[in-house]
Amino acid sequence: MKYNPIDATLSRIKSLAKTGNREGMARFGIRVDDAFGVSIYELRKIAKELGTDHKLALGLWETGNHEARILAGMIDDPDLVTETQMECWVRDFNSWDMCDQVCSNLFDRTKYAYKKSVEWTKRDEEFVKRAGFVLMAALSVHDKHAADSKFEKFLPIIERHATDERNFVKKAVNWALRQIGKRNAHLNKKAIDVAERFGKTESKAARWIARDALKELRSDKVRKKLQHEGNTILNT
After folding, report:
1. Which of 52, 64, 191, 204 could form a disulfide with 181, with the two C-beta atoms 3.0–4.6 Å apart?
2. Is residue 32 part of a domain?
3. Is residue 82 assigned to a domain?
4. Are 22 and 62 contained in the same domain?
5. Considering the domain boundaries, does residue 90 fall inside one?
């Protein structure tokens, strides 16, 4: 029988499934109807061995398997990812972990990342909208040399959508705000100002986001980190 890399990889993933993992995933709000129950840790080990493989990534995604799709995001080549592919994949997101893994392992490294981070926040589908804010958070962490202006443009969008009561959306909005506010002292102040403003609204979601974000952004840990990084820049 001719060797099929997609089938072989899928079989390998399945062999790593552990009893009880699917139940644990379900408790955390992850859909398990097409999942084996394999940890992210194990998938990362497979991804490291496979290396970058765009064709295999596309094939794994088409299987529809939960873990195969997360692995696809780990091994795909961001330089070969098209806007059409991103739109197809984002419409397939059906759980927060798939959304977060693909966005932070792959989509944030594509040339369409900033564009999609804004576009997707305008969409109504819960996981598509979440993907927009997850991209903002991931870019805040991974795009080390980006100008502050790129992230300042995200803040009005965050404020506008802070009233979305859906759990997976509001948590991503929170995540984006916190990560932007931890980039440097300037963005920290901007993020705090935004959170203070929408935190006074009647929206329960907005008040929760503001309260949770401000707790971290005003913390001694974050302040010391930003102060240290600011002094390091001045001394270089």
Report:
1. 191
2. yes
3. no
4. yes
5. no
Q: Average pLDDT, stretch 205-229?
A: 95
Cα distances (Å, whole numbers) of residue 142 to 9, 46, 68, 112, 115? 28, 22, 24, 15, 16
Neighbours of 11 (CB within 10 A): 10
Distances (CA, A) of 84 to 25, 68, 89: 30, 20, 9
How many Å apart are CA 208 and CA 213, to the nearest integer?
A: 8
CA distance 124 to 215: 29
Q: Are residues 233 and 128 in the same domain?
A: yes
- When pLDDT is averaged across residues 182-206 and rounded to a whole number, the result is 97
How far does CA 11 lie from the centroid of its chain?
A: 27
Residue 185: pLDDT band (50, 70, 90) is very high
206 and 112 fall within a common domain: yes
Burial of 101 (0-12, 13-18, 19+ CB in 10 A): buried
What is the signed CA dihedral for 146, 151, 152, 153, rounded to 10 degrees?
A: 110
Give me the numbers of helices (H) and strands (E) for the chain, helices first please: 15, 0
Between CA 198 and CA 209 the distance in angstroms is 9
Tokens standing for residue 8: 């072989």
CATH number at residue 229: 1.25.10.10
Cβ distance 41 to 13 under 8 Å?
A: no
Q: Which residue range(s) make up the domain with 228?
A: 95-236
**Residue range 64-103, pLDDT digits in tens:** 999 999 999 999 999 999 999 999 999 999 999 999 999 9
pLDDT at 107 (0 to 100): 98
